[in-house]
Amino acid sequence: MAALMRMARERGGWWHAYVCPVHGVELDHADLLSGVFPAGGARCAHGCRVDDEAVRGAWTVLSHQAWARHLRVLAHRGGRAEAVAGLTELGALYAELAAEGHGEAQAWMLRGRMFHQALTDAIWAVNIGHAVITLAEEGTEDLAPLGPFLDELERAASDARDVLTGRGQLASNYTAWLNAAGVAAGRAASAVRGREWDGAKNWLEGDQGLYAHLRVAVAEDGWEWEGSTYYHGFVLRAALLALRGTAPAKLPRDVVDVLAGMTDVLAVIATPGGILPALHDGPYARHPLALEWLELVALAQQLVPAESLEAVAAQARRELGAADDGLDGLLGGWFTGPPLARRAPAAPVTVFGAAGYGVLRGAGIHALLDFGPHGGSHGHRDKLSLYLYGDITPWQPDPGQVPYAHTVFRDHYASTAAHPAFGADGAEQAECAGVLLEADASSVTAEVTTAYEGVRAVRRVALGGCYLVDLLTVTGERPRRFAAHLRPGTSLDVQAQAGGPVRTTWYGQETLHGWHTHAADVPVRPAARPGPGPADDPQRVCTQVDFTAETERVVFASVYQAATAGPAVTDVRLDGEELTVELADGTAARFRTGG
After folding, report:
1. Exposed/middle/buried for 193, CB within 10 Å: 0-12, 13-18, 19+?
2. 300, 459, 528, 564: which has the highest count of C-beta atoms within 10 A?
3. One-character DSSP codes across 72-125
4. SS3 388
5. Alpha-carbon gap, residue 484 to 127, rounded angstroms
6. Residue 332 class from Cβ within 10 Å (0-12 exposed, 13-18 middle, 19+ buried)?
7. Three-class SS of residue 458?
């Protein structure tokens, strides 16, 4: 029982407050299973020590979540006595602290009981419920006292779901987790009493259940409606966790199609080395996120196997290093019956029309063109951004997002200036959506006309045989100061030439070469300056470049070639609406702009 006394004895707050107010980085977690906030304050990677009520509340969230996960792993690994004792302690703590909604939650939040947010309660309850279900598979004699605790967890999920759907928010990502919590707690409560679970009609099949949620939250192209990699995976993971013990072949056909489509999205956007671009809101890189991706892949591979998801798991394990992820065998046999057919590898060009992403792969470059809807509260002002990755190198990534409580850096990472997009007069783009103009087997062309009043921008991205072509055309009703942004996530060298294109070299575990030219009636000036790198550490400085021209119309043209590809590019010329790319073997190709 000594270990149980190490649990935090307070309710938790909002985990997004666990951020350094000076540097914008997530604070070091220290020993979350100690139950004691770090002495002297939570450490920042840049030397700060932070200790205030919000940060303490955020750490308590992380500690409680770590304990719930720890108990789930103990249940799986044969630590029954400690797991049961821990769950019993949690039940007593919940009865003592969480009989009513959390009084310190912010007005905008869906109020939780144990934590500020009901969403956080739900995530916690899912781990608790699955820990109990695993224990019940080996016997229930010592689990009976947990019944009332599990009943309260299910009731809390139901109450919160009623509030949420009463607001017309069935499509909210919260709904997925509230349903997952209701399933886990309800199944666990039935298991400890030796009863068959009869909650499927409520939590899975009902008007507010998981299936109804998936039918409205996921678009026909497979993307969760917010267009965020993180929240897409967040919803998919909740759904897969909720379906423990289900036979894939017995799921409703349309639900299977949704789950398969969501899995395909991740398989397509992942680089060959397993990097998942952090599109829209979501962490850029984070230890708990790597654990989440590992869990999701372990579940998804039992439903709709995809080779590229194996690379995502390998990348997550690299990020975790030697840390024990606790997943060894934990999720085996999650579904009853065989998986669905293995998914085919993605084609060189894939367009997600509803979410508004074009993905192009070839010659060592993995490119994503972002042109879709804003994405609600998790959207960024980033229309026509072009993200560039190697197999394992984020040359020009979506920068992700900091913990939300840091309002200054959160606004920065949602801004136009933070993205490899286009700008006008140094102003922010409006929250808007672009339109797909054309796509074929080697190119994608998209347009946006509402980012700035009176401005039309068209971006065409095309695969050459051994390089990538980027043609961005921006037109205004009057002269404006137009800019095309380069926003690297790695070291970048920029060199202007006495004649010919500007040259760039992008470093990392792989190297990328760039050629940049333009067509306009005025000079285009490249300006390099230091700026914040990706959101996992806003203090990491990267060289940012703006190509700027004050005119009514300009074409910004770039050619990119991975160092491993060939024949090498030897010359790039833009003549009006036509770009010519010459190679070392004497061949040449021509590309028309899309604007």
Report:
1. middle
2. 459
3. HHHHHHT-HHHHHHHHHHHHHHHHHH-SS--TT--TTS-B-SSSSBHHHHHHHH
4. strand
5. 46
6. exposed
7. strand
Find the Cα–Cα–Cα–Cα dihedral 253, 259, 262, 267, rounded to 10°. Answer: -110
pLDDT at 325: 72
Q: How far is CA 527 from CA 430, 502, 553, in A?
A: 24, 11, 19
Task: State residue 218's pLDDT score.
Answer: 98
Residues 6+ apart with CB under 8 A from 496: 502, 526
In terms of phi and psi (left: phi > 0; alpha: psi -120 to 50; beta: otherwise), the region of 41 is left
Q: Phi first, then psi: what are they for 192, rounded to 5°?
A: -70, -20
Q: How far apart are CA 469 and CA 590, in angstroms?
A: 10
Mean pLDDT of 467-487: 98
Q: Give the whole-angstrom CA distance, residue 14 versus residue 106.
A: 9
Closest of 383, 384, 382 to residue 399, by C-alpha: 382
Q: What is the pTM of this model?
A: 0.96
Task: Identify whether 567 is preceded by a cis peptide bond (ω within 30 of 0).
Answer: yes
Q: How many residues does the chain have?
A: 595
Close Cβ partners of 25 (under 8 Å, ≥ 6 residues apart): 19, 44, 45, 46, 402, 536, 537, 538, 539
Return the amino acid letter for 479: P
Residue with tokens 């680089």: 271
Q: How far apart are CA 37 and CA 587, in angstroms?
A: 64
